Amino acid sequence: MNPERAFRKEVGETNWAELLTLGRPLRFRPRAELIRQGGYDDFLFVVTEGRIKVLHRDEDGEQLLMAVRGPGDLVGELAKTGSAPRSATVFAVDPCCALRVGSAEFDHFISRHGLTDKVLEYSYGKLRESVANRTRLAHARPGARIARLLADTLDLAGPRLADSRRLPFTQQELATDLGLSRSKVAAVIAELRSAGVLDGGPQLRVADPARLRERANRSGHDPDDL
Question: Is 224 within a domain?
Answer without folding.
Answer: no
